[in-house]
Amino acid sequence: MLRRIRSPTHRFDWKRVDEIGQILGKAETDEAVKKTYEEAAQDCEQSNWIVFRYGTEEERTLYQDNGGQCFGDFARGVAEEIAGKVMQRVFREGVPEEQQALMKDELARYASKPFS
């Protein structure tokens, strides 16, 4: 399930996760990975997370090319514009699991910020 809710083009070395999963079992490993993604979604700047987690290779490259190596050199509004396009693509074309994961990330982000 977790590998289906991440972007199909998202590159991640799952070898170590699989090794740990053989010890912990599938359910416990899936829960740990899910929790890690949820925590990372809250700790990262919103646009960075959306593009990293849900962007295609092309979208991530465009994002990096526009923002520099550390994503800190964006012209005003560029990061948000690219992340917004990623969100639109996910909700229009993404698989239901990916759409649900993105919605949960965003709901958790806003729920953790009272009165904002």
Q: What does this protein look like?
A:
The chain is mostly helical. The protein folds into 2 domains: 12-43, no CATH class; 46-116, no CATH class. Helices cover 72% and strands 0% of the residues. It contains 7 helices and no strands. Helix 2 (15-24) crosses helix 3 and helix 5 (57-67) runs antiparallel to helix 6. The chain is globular, with a radius of gyration of 15 Å. The protein starts with a helix and ends in a 5-residue tail after the last helix. Residues 1-11 have low confidence and may be disordered.
- Global shape: globular
> What's the order of the H and E elements?
HHHHHHH
DSSP, total strands:
0
Mean pLDDT: 79
Rg measurement, Å: 15 Å
Low-confidence stretches: 1-11
Itemize the secondary structure elements and their pairings.
Elements: H1 2-5, H2 15-24, H3 26-43, H4 46-54, H5 57-67, H6 78-93, H7 96-111
Helix pairs in contact: 2-3, 4-6, 5-6
